[in-house]
Amino acid sequence: MPISVLLVDDEPLVRAGLRAILEAQPDIEVTGEAGDGAAVVPLVRQLRPDVVAMDVRMPLLDGIEATRAVLRTVTDPPRILVVTTFEADEYVYEALRAGADGFLLKRSRPAEIVHAVRLVAEGSSLLLPASLRAMAADRRNDRARADFERAALTGREREVLRLMCRGLSNAEIATELVVGAETVKTHVSAVLAKLGARDRTQAVIAAYESGFVTPGTVG
C-alpha cells in the first residue's frame, strides 16, 4: 500500500508544490488537503493518513495545537511531519515536544521531502539540525534530569539512545553495536517506554534537555 499523506498549510501554492513532488512517487499518495490546523482532526479521522505534513504557523490553529489535538483525540494517530520556513524556530521546537515526529524545511529539495516522508512513515527519526539540538540543550533543567534518572535506562539502552541522537536507524544501530535488528528494536521500545516518549524524536529531545547528551557529543 502506498504511504498516504494529508497536507496542511494555509498557502495553496505550498500545498500544490508538495502534492506535485509527493505524487510523482509510486509509493506515496496525497489523500487530502487542509488550509488550517482546525480542520486536521476531522480529516485525520475521515482519511486515516499515514503521515500529516503540517505547517507550523497557521491563522486559526497552529501546528503545535493541531499536533496536540491529533495525539490527544485520535486513536492510532498518524505520523506528523512539521513543515516550516525557518529552522531555528520556537514553534518547530514546541511542535516536536508536543509529539511531532520530525520537521522539514519548505525550501528542501524534492528528494529530501520524499525521503523525510518515507522515514517518518516507517517510524524512523530525522536527525535534528544543530540549531534545534542547541535549543534543546539550552533547555537543560533539573526536572528533565530527574525524570531521565528515574527512567533508569540500562547501559545498553543508554548506548542505543546515544546512537538514536545521531540519527541512526535500527539497522545502523545494529551494525554499530554488532547485534541483531530485533534486539535493537527491543532496546528502542524500552527506551521510549521508560522515557514516556511517543517516538524517537521525543526521546532525543529528552536526552538533550536532561543533559544526557550535548550538541558537541553527537555527530
From TrEMBL:
Matches recorded under Gene3D superfamilies: 3.40.50.2300
Classification via PROSITE patterns: HTH_LUXR_1, HTH_LUXR_2, RESPONSE_REGULATORY
Keyword DNA-binding in record: yes
Keyword Repeat (UniProt): no
SUPFAM superfamilies: C-terminal effector domain of the bipartite response regulators, CheY-like
Domain Response regulatory: 4-121
Record-linked SMART domains: HTH_LUXR (SM00421), REC (SM00448)
InterPro entries: CheY-like_superfamily, NreC/VraR/RcsB-like_REC, Sig_transdc_resp-reg_C-effctor, Sig_transdc_resp-reg_receiver, Tscrpt_reg_LuxR_C, WalR-like
Occurrences of domain HTH luxR-type (ranges): 146-211
4-aspartylphosphate PTM positions: D55
Entry keyword set: DNA-binding, Phosphoprotein, Transcription, Transcription regulation
Name of the protein in question: Response regulator transcription factor
Biological source species: Streptomyces endophytica
